Amino acid sequence: MKSATLELLREPGTGDSLELQAGTLVNPKTGRRYALRDGIPLFAESATGQNHKYQHMYDRIARCYDLGDWLGRCYFWLRRARNPRKKLVAELALPPAGRVLEVSIGTGLNVLHLPAAIEVFGLDLSWGMLARCCRNLARWKRSAELFQGEGENLPFKDDSFDAVLHTGGINFFNDKSRAMREMVRVAKPGAKIVISDETEEAVKGLYEKTPLIKSYYHDRDQPVSCPINEVPPGMLEVQATELLFGKLYCLSFRKP
């Protein structure tokens, strides 16, 4: 692990600095240890609640996720729809060089649309998705610092990133409000935060009917919606739009 990366890391919850000792990350104040797997720190191996449910789902579908994404892009290309990943990355308003965090990086498909000079940090709850992301990055000859953890407990110090991106997953986080506050916390002043996920139209019309995943979406308490009302107070340039004929929402705002 690079020394610059270690400098950015903080223990989730406490905010304490971490040290690398004998192949594990250690909180020197408490002695608590976090394992590394294939060089990736594991901050949330045992999730709870909704996070555990969808951690299991993404581990299960990781091997076929990219194929599903490709088929979806083919469908929307036929309908002359712009690739939403390009739109979301453009919305970040990235500087020519800097550091971006993607929460729920999945298999890394957004990395291809980020400038090569940007330093990418990616966090995901699913080990299966991170493993696939590693393979993709090697194949694309791109790099990213990867971490396993929860969006509600980001393992980074305050004011670390020039932009924060989240695509897919926040609809079913244990605590959407807390996750958004964490994204704001680790973003630098003036940084853009962009959050996107499926609308209720997509969840009900597609995911609830797809054999491999439909059981995860049944018996929901309420329909999904853009969490614009949970944007932390004081954020600037708050706006919400829909993409892909109403299948996705894009929520963006800037940290003061």
> Which structural class do you get from the secondary structure elements?
alpha/beta
Total helix count? 6
Spatial extent as radius of gyration = 18 Å
User: How do the strands line up in the largest sheet?
Assistant: 7-6-5-8-9-11-10
CATH class: Alpha Beta
What shape does the CA trace take?
A: globular
In terms of DSSP E residues, the strand content is 25-35%
Q: Which consecutive residue ranges, at least 5 long each, have pLDDT under 50?
A: none
Kindly report how far apart the N and C termini lie: 31 Å
Counted beta strands: 11
Order of helices and strands: HEEEEHHEEHEEHEHEE
Largest sheet: 7 strands, mixed
CATH homologous superfamily identity: Vaccinia Virus protein VP39
Query: How confident is the prediction overall: mean pLDDT?
Result: 93
Helix percentage: 25-40%
- CATH topology group: Rossmann fold
What would CATH call the architecture? 3-Layer(aba) Sandwich
Describe the fold and architecture.
The structure is a single chain. With 256 residues, the protein is α/β, with parallel strands linked by helices. It has a single domain, classed as Rossmann fold, CATH 3.40.50.150. 29% of the residues lie in helices and 25% in strands. It contains 6 helices and 11 strands. It has helices spanning 3-8, 49-78, 84-91, 127-140, 176-186, 200-205; strands at 19-21, 24-26, 33-37, 40-41, 98-103, 118-124, 145-148, 161-167, 187-198, 236-243, 248-254. The strands form 2 sheets. Strands 7-6-5-8-9-11-10 form a 7-stranded mixed beta sheet. Strands 1-2-3-4 form a 4-stranded antiparallel beta sheet, with no helix packed on it. Helix 4 (127-140) links the parallel strand 6 (118-124) and strand 7. The longest helix has 30 residues, at 49-78. The model has no long low-confidence stretch (mean pLDDT 93).
